[in-house]
Design brief:
Helix content: 25-40%
CATH architecture of the largest domain: 3-Layer(aba) Sandwich
CATH class of the largest domain: Alpha Beta
Number of domains: 4
Low-confidence stretches: 520-525, 594-604, 608-615
Number of helices: 23
Structural class: alpha/beta
Mean pLDDT: 83
CATH topology of the largest domain: Rossmann fold
Radius of gyration: 31 Å
Number of strands: 30
Strand order of the largest sheet: 5-6-4-7-8-3-9
Largest sheet: 7 strands, parallel
Shape: globular
């Protein structure tokens, strides 16, 4: 499946972290080995903490605000397992609806192949609720689901999905990637119902010595000190038990401690309790990955947030419906509110029908109805019961019975309904608390809250259920790209606060201002739309067009179309030229398959007392079975991450293997090093693809096949026009930006610029621009205009922040300057370097095109430039743009 730009960005950051982690761990282990060679004891350093601090130094970790509001480096939260070994642990902060499960599965694939270089082992996937458990199980257990296919790719087609009560053997974990789904409560040792996983069981005998072999049990306990043991204190010779004997519990908890799983914690912020932390770390995990929309809430620092995806990123990728329309009926009652919501759903159904007729795209808008009571014996006139709502829909509003479903803790009429199917009739879902989390349906558009006293709480808990955008792309019909909340007789400020709190709890606090509120009997609105006009002296300016990156194409009316990265760069890349360049020098990690055996015996001491004799581990070479061979299809699937065409991936792999074989590398060595080889091949080829993509882009730019230009055509897809008016959502608390001295702005293109959405660097830059004589006007282009973007030789688009019209001295002509601001913590990272290089290239291209008469900007005959401004040097970098 194709990932969104922000998801690729998350995985790129994870890739970099894992490479850094692997290098740091190797250095730490080499030091320990060196000390042991000298006869000295040395403990493995906390390489996970060292890796984090290195990333902080490289400005790859977002800074945090301290109590004084100052930005400070994020401290590392250290975790150790039951044997006091450091556990690498990071968190991916992704808002609800952003694909946390997808990113978790993709992360498992990278951990297996890039960090641990193995296809087998155990993944413990911990979830906080029954709803999320069922949803995740459905995705991972289905062999046709993209998430399961990613796991299959990581394991070479050997995935075993398990539940807590399933039996499995040591052979299963040795030969498969076992993924066990576990409820968070089941791993909490103080939970009475779930202590079963720590009890002795007869289902895991293959992992343990025979119960009455005290010697081997004691040896196992000595090697893994935190295993649980049976209490034999009440037994003695009469029961056949030697006093002081050791018997390790044959429990699931002990199996996990032995196999050292990778732990994925979904909704990681719900595992902050000391009990949950101690239990998860006590499983001796090799890695802990948290997935959370709201880590480190309430000012407490529990998680190492490696990546922070904003709500705006989801909006830009068309993943969520915004704005949210809050409609409150003052001095009303629930029946009238339900009638209004029903009428809105009918409007949405009509718009959805038109959409299907025009595009073939199917959407069936659904309403969620939140009531006060659902229990069989709870129906009375004082509270709105689920059956009250059902009867009103059917008897008064004419809704068919088969269009209504009740979803409660006791009654689940949804069952296995596929709500996205065209054959499904469901349009109304009545609930109280059963859909609070872990339930997602992109067709849910309307939330109707019929609980007057607890409306704010209900909105906070359920707003996330109506946010997902169908098919993760806009419909271009405004009504179907927004969502709706209906309440009655509420303080609108309280209701809006509930929506905003709900957005914050879904990890989207940065878009919480996009709430539009209205009341039937009150003209005033807490959040409203405002139309911004240009300043009077700028209203008669000629139309302002900005050029887009286009590609020559004779098949189009204007001879050009929008540039498409995959079609115009990847499609023209000479895949035949790719090969693994380091094949001749690939370093074999170990050319022998080995088995390690630790032998423990009793010996008699000088005083004739028996004591354990712990011999040094013995390493035995295993005879390689040539019939096993390499799993070529698995290796090809791994390479398609960087070479989309499997035939080309096969060619590169075959060439690499042939080269290694010609250099005397044996089949056994190839098998032993296959995962390390894949990791190095992907890293090398990814770099080659990036270099070749840039070469193609630059070459096409030089030849004119790619151009940043304006066309005479009025095709709005090819020419981007700056609007004459802007519609923005404004809260009654939003403040208009003024100059630093408190006076009004004079040179902003529009009469008002609101401070909401401006970060400190953008505000400081705006203040500076507004005072410069050479600036004719300036505009924050990112406000409600994010569709203007620049595309280069990488997949992600660049969205500039500011557009400045600069007056050319002594000529009467003007020039455009496009500015992108970057915080100090982003300086030097790959994304910033790429944008800077793209801006420099486009600036030079525009200069050449203007001089050659190929690009004419009516409103800026002096041309156009692009500039990246960094927080620590912006005041110097901006000067050349204005002179």
């Amino acid at each position: 499946m194709e990932l969104k730009d922000y998801q690729n960005g998350v995985l790129d950051k994870l890739d970099y972290y894992l490479k850094k982690l692997a290098d740091t761990k190797e250095e730490a282990e080499d030091f320990v080995a060196f000390q042991k060679m000298k006869g000295k004891e040395a403990r493995l350093t906390d390489y996970a903490k060292d890796t984090w601090e290195a990333l902080v130094q490289e400005r790859r970790i977002d800074l945090l605000k301290d109590k004084s509001g100052h930005l400070v480096p994020a401290p590392y939260v250290t975790r150790f397992d039951g044997l006091d070994r450091p556990i690498p642990n990071v968190c991916l902060k992704v808002p609800t609806g952003g694909g946390k499960t997808l990113l978790g599965v993709a992360a498992v694939e990278r951990l297996q192949t890039d960090l641990f270089t193995q296809q087998t082992g155990m993944v413990l996937w911990v979830v906080p609720s029954d709803a999320i458990y069922k949803q995740t199980w459905k995705q991972l257990a289905n062999r046709e689901h993209p998430y399961r296919q990613m796991l299959e790719r990581a394991s070479g087609g050997r995935v075993k999905v398990l539940e807590k009560n399933d039996a499995f053997t040591k052979r299963d974990t040795d030969e498969n990637l076992c993924v066990m789904l576990l409820m968070l409560q089941s791993s909490a040792r103080q939970s009475k119902q779930t202590l079963r996983m720590f009890r002795d069981s007869g289902r895991f005998t293959s992992f343990f010595p025979v119960e009455d072999d005290s010697t081997k049990n004691e040896a196992l306990l000595n090697s893994i000190r935190n295993l649980d043991c049976n209490d034999l204190s009440d037994y003695g010779w009469q029961e056949g038990i030697i006093p002081g004997s050791v018997s390790v519990k044959q429990s699931l908890g002990n199996v996990l401690r032995m196999v050292r799983p990778v732990i994925i914690v979904d909704e990681g912020h719900k595992a902050y309790s000391e009990t949950a932390r101690e239990t998860l770390c006590g499983f001796n995990p090799k890695f802990i990955l948290e997935l959370s929309a709201t880590p480190n809430a309430n000012g407490k620092h529990h998680s190492n947030v490696l990546v922070n995806v904003s709500g705006q990123a989801l909006k830009d990728e068309q993943m969520i419906k915004l704005p949210i329309n809050l409609i409150n009926e003052d001095k009303s009652e629930w029946k009238h509110t339900l009638s209004l919501a029903h009428a809105k759903l009918a409007e949405l159904e009509q718009d959805a029908g038109q959409l299907q007729n025009e595009t073939g795209r199917y959407i069936r808008p659904i309403m969620l109805i939140r009531v006060e009571r659902t229990g069989k014996d709870q129906r009375d006139s004082a509270f709105v019961h689920a059956e009250d709502a059902r009867e009103y829909l059917m008897e008064k509003l004419g809704v068919n019975e088969n269009e209504i479903r009740l979803k409660t803790s006791d009654k689940d009429e949804l069952g296995d309904d596929d709500l996205l199917s065209e054959m499904c009739p469901v349009k109304y879902i009545i609930t109280k608390d059963a859909l609070r989390e872990g339930w997602d349906c992109p067709f849910a558009y309307v939330l109707t809250v019929l609980s007057k006293m607890t409306a704010k709480t209900a909105i906070t808990q359920m707003i996330g259920r109506v946010l997902r955008q169908p098919h993760a792309r806009l419909t271009q019909k405004p009504s179907l790209d927004e969502c709706y909340v209906y309440t009655f007789d509420q303080d609108v400020m309280e209701a809006v606060a509930g929506v905003k709190q709900g957005l914050e709890e879904e990890g989207m606090g940065d878009v919480a201002n996009q709430v539009k509120a209205s009341e039937a009997n009150k003209p005033a609105a807490v959040v409203s739309k405002e139309t911004l006009l240009r300043r009077e002296r700028f209203r008669n300016l000629p139309k302002i067009f900005l050029p887009r990156v286009l590609h020559r194409d004779a098949g189009y009316k204007d001879g050009y179309r929008l540039f498409d990265y995959e079609r115009d760069v990847l499609g023209d890349l000479d895949w035949e030229s790719l090969s693994y360049l380091n094949a001749e020098n690939f370093q074999l990690v170990d050319d022998k398959l080995q088995r390690t055996i630790a032998r423990i015996d009793y010996k008699m001491s000088k005083d004739n007392q028996g004591e354990l004799d712990l011999a040094d581990p013995v390493h035995e070479n295993i005879e390689f079975d040539p019939s096993a061979g390499l799993d070529i299809s698995f290796m090809v699937r791994q390479l398609t991450d960087v070479i989309p065409n499997p035939w080309q991936a096969m060619r590169v792999l075959t060439h690499t293997l042939d080269t290694l074989r010609s250099n005397g590398v044996t089949e056994e060595a190839l098998f032993t090093n296959r995962l390390e080889l894949l990791k190095e091949m992907k890293r090398d080829i990814k770099q080659q693809v990036a270099q070749l993509s840039e070469q193609i882009f630059r070459s096409k730019l030089d030849k004119g096949d790619i151009s940043l230009r304006l066309l005479a055509s009025d095709n709005e897809k090819l020419n981007w026009e700056l609007a004459q008016t802007l519609e923005v959502n404004v809260s009654e608390h939003d403040q208009v930006l003024r100059r630093k001295d408190g006076s009004e702005l004079e040179k902003s293109l529009f009469e008002k610029v609101y401070q909401n959405g401006l970060n400190n660097l953008e505000r400081d830059t705006a203040w500076y621009l507004d005072k410069q004589e050479s600036v004719y006007w300036w505009h924050r282009i990112a406000v409600n205009q994010r569709e203007y973007s620049l595309q280069g030789w990488q997949k992600q688009k660049v969205y500039p922040d500011l557009l400045v019209c600069v007056e050319q001295p002594n000529s009467g002509s003007y020039r455009f300057s496009v500015l992108e601001t970057k915080g100090e913590h982003l300086k030097g990272n790959d994304d910033t370097v790429y944008k800077r290089r793209l801006f420099e290239l486009l600036t030079e291209h525009v200069k050449t095109a203007v001089d050659a008469g190929e690009l004419t900007l009516e409103a800026a005959s002096g041309g156009m430039s692009f500039r990246m401004l960094m927080e620590d040097s912006w005041s110097q970098e901006i000067v050349p743009e204005l002179n």
